[in-house]
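The authors assume throughout that readers already know how a fold can be written as discrete tokens. For illustration, here is how one protein appears when written out as sequence plus structure tokens.
>
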Amino acid sequence: MGAIEIKVNTASLQSAIEDILRDYGDVVYEATAEGIKAAEKVLIKNLKAASPKRSGKFAKGWKGKASRDKLMRYVGNTTTVTDKKGNEIPLANILEYSTTRGKPFIKKTHEASIDEMARAVVETIKREV
């Protein structure tokens, strides 16, 4: 009895593996983009909770915005105040950076939210993939 020789076309195998990995990569990319949206919601929730409560308007002003890159989101506050010259200034800038009226909390809140945001991303990816 002689040995059976099988010829394997490695080019087609490699192509098939690349196609599968490309499809999987697309799924992971989309799931990660959804996870980033979940992280954005976590940060907004935490910023609202940490915001000064004087009128409540500032806390309600936290909004998220998509960027061109699906794996990035911007979070900002839409509340502005008018200075003596009539210029509109974002209230968040005054609270975070003013040396006389500042009550910094945005950077601290972001840093304190990182673990919770990361968990939100991972949970979303696990659900999607």
About this structure: The helical segments are 10-50, 57-60, 91-97, 106-128. The chain has a mean pLDDT of 92. The beta strands are 62-66, 73-77, 80-82, 88-90.
